[in-house]
Amino acid sequence: MADRGEYLIAWLAEFLKNKDLIQRRIARMERLDAGLRVERKDGTAVVYVPAPKLDEDALAKAGGKAAVGIITFNTSANIAFLKKRWDAFASLGRHAQIIFINPASTREMRWIIFPATQSMLTKEKALLTSIDAIRAGVDELTEADIQKLVEDHG
């Protein structure tokens, strides 16, 4: 059986390569034990951490990095954890981003949120509603959906 973290990193690498086809800003991608490091030609770098399940462990892995991205599946459990621990995600820094994916979605395949930025732009009482609005374009995955994606990939 294929690994869910490996699936997320493979999907992300392909997504970033395709996104960079025109601007060609990526200098190199390096596979790390903890994820994927993407260096840009301007000298900036982002470390992407795979988190098939958003939980305290995923938060710990993301902490302490200057620029971090977390890539995860678009599940109701992951979205619920994001909402529950919003302050912890927002405190990861202004460059921290979370990418929720569903490659099988009939609409968009991903949505991305920068928690620190979103916290600055949105009033606290409207925050949960704004998260729901941002994620509305991507279908949610079930455990069975994820298993099929990973097995078909591996």
Briefly say what this structure is:
With 154 residues, the protein is of the alpha/beta class. It has helices at residues 4-19, 56-62, 76-84, 86-90, 115-121, 127-135, 143-153; strands spanning 26-32, 35-40, 45-50, 68-73, 97-101, 110-113. β2 and β3 form a beta hairpin.
Tell me what you see in this structure.
The chain is of the alpha/beta class and 154 residues long. The protein has one domain (4-153). Helix content is 42%, strand content 22%. It has 7 helices and 6 strands. The chain has helices at 4-19, 56-62, 76-84, 86-90, 115-121, 127-135, 143-153, and strands spanning 26-32, 35-40, 45-50, 68-73, 97-101, 110-113. A 6-stranded mixed beta sheet has the order 1-2-3-4-5-6, with helices on both faces. The longest helix is centred in the N-terminal third of the chain and has 16 residues, at 4-19. The protein is globular. The mean pLDDT is 93.
Topology:
Blueprint: H1 4-19, E1 26-32, E2 35-40, E3 45-50, H2 56-62, E4 68-73, H3 76-84, H4 86-90, E5 97-101, E6 110-113, H5 115-121, H6 127-135, H7 143-153
Parallel strand pairs: 3-4, 4-5
Antiparallel strand pairs: 1-2, 2-3, 5-6
Tell me, what's the shape? globular
Main-sheet strand order equals: 1-2-3-4-5-6
Low-pLDDT sequence parts = none
**Strand proportion:** 15-25%
Count of spatially separate domains = 1
- Give the distance, in angstroms, between the N- and C-terminal Cα atoms: 7 Å
- pLDDT averaged over residues: 93
Helix content: 40-55%
The assigned structural class equals alpha/beta
The string of secondary-structure elements, in order, is HEEEHEHHEEHHH
Number of helices: 7
Computed CA radius of gyration, to the nearest angstrom: 15 Å
Largest sheet: 6 strands, mixed
Q: How many distinct beta strands? A: 6
